[in-house]
Write a structure and sequence with these properties.
The protein is an alpha/beta fold. Helices cover about 30% and strands about 20% of the residues. A hairpin with a 5-residue loop joins strand 12 and strand 13 (about 315-320).
């Protein structure tokens, strides 16, 4: 029994408490940071102006690796959690079991811990930050503003967004491509559904005029000039091609990914055509969807291929789900080159029916 008394540990509370926060790591992340090649970690939060006020979650801190993002959440604890310093070592030449165990000292008390929750709202984050590009060609009815260096106020570049948006670098790149974001004169934009519909219609028209089969490999440069002639910026055209192509080297041309492209065209048309209350006639929507695809892909048109949420407000009508509506933000009708759209493709319209 005397030995058991000697094994008792005394606890002392330090008068000067230190500040610590306990962070609970998911097993996968713990394995990464304890590996032989640990990744760099960074703490970030949304910091891009008043628009973040529309989304309170954007101001929360996140922890990022190169390819993952975790929301940081504080969890209160009813237990008393102390951080202690290791006791002093036993006196030299004294047997451990016979020595008096020195007291441990609590240097901090933590009433809460921080936990990490995986984030999966990358595209939503960009939609809540970037200003909306509304083409004067596809979104008529508002005053046209040219995108020139002198016209841009409070410029937000792609790099600015990356540094401040609560996303890991890889997730940011994926979201940037997913929403067809682009940059002109150092300012980042996200296109409206009507602008995406307009530039895609221009691509289809240009391909028809040049007898280019978009279901096969094609040279992007063969379409770029004609699309720009229609009044759409080169950067937006490039973003649409990047969003829908197969992920491979484009030295010998681009190949559009059938499943990805068919679904994207359908979702874009539905967002552009449907009204919040009554939507659009389903038969009309499906016909337009087919006409905006290479002929060999039209047989794959089906509501089941849509990635966005949709509903049927009444019999025979369809509308976009409320979570996939027009991105939040200030809308500006823009024209990057001051040209009126070309009319070269009008005579080819009938060939796409």
């Amino acid at each position: 029994m005397p030995i058991q008394d000697n094994l008792a540990i005394s606890l002392e509370i330090s008068h000067e408490q230190q500040s610590f926060r306990l962070l609970e790591l998911p097993p996968a992340l713990l394995e990464l940071i304890t590996s032989s090649s640990p990744p760099s970690l960074s703490l970030k939060s949304g910091n891009l102006g008043d628009r973040n006020a529309l989304n309170p979650a954007s101001s929360h801190a996140v922890l990022c690796t190169n390819d993952q993002t975790f929301h940081v959440r504080q969890v209160q604890s009813s237990n008393s959690v102390f951080l202690i310093q290791p006791p002093e070592t036993y006196r030299q030449n004294e047997e451990p079991l016979l020595a008096k165990t020195p007291p441990v000292r609590a240097i901090a008390q933590c009433a809460s811990t921080l936990e990490l929750i995986p984030a999966s709202t990358a595209a939503v984050s960009l939609r809540q930050i970037l200003p909306i590009y509304r083409s004067s060609v596809a979104d008529p009815g508002a005053e046209v503003q040219k995108i020139e260096e002198s016209d841009i106020k409070e410029k937000i570049s792609k790099q600015n967004v990356l540094e401040n948006v609560p996303l890991s670098p890889r997730q940011f790149d994926q979201a940037w491509v997913e929403v067809c974001a682009f940059e002109i004169n150092g300012k980042a934009w996200i296109p409206s559904a009507n602008s995406l519909k307009g530039v895609w219609n221009s691509i289809i028209s240009a391909a028809t005029a040049k007898s280019i089969d978009l279901a096969r490999r094609f040279l992007v440069v063969d379409l770029a000039d004609m699309v720009e002639e229609d009044g759409f910026p080169q950067a937006l055209f490039d973003a649409v091609i990047e969003r829908n192509r197969i992920d491979e080297d484009m030295t010998n041309g681009a190949i559009l990914a059938k499943d990805k492209c068919v679904s994207w065209v359908g979702g874009t048309l539905l967002e552009a055509q449907s009204t919040p209350d009554h939507g659009v006639a389903e038969s009309e929507f499906l016909d337009d969807w087919k006409n905006q695809l290479p002929e060999i892909w039209r047989k794959y048109v089906a509501l089941s291929t849509l990635k966005c949420k949709y509903s049927h407000p009444s019999k025979g009508r369809i509308r976009l789900g409320i979570d996939s509506g027009d991105p939040l933000g200030s809308a500006v009708v823009v024209n990057t080159n001051g040209k009126r759209p070309g009319k070269w493709h009008e005579k080819f319209k009938s060939t796409r029916q």
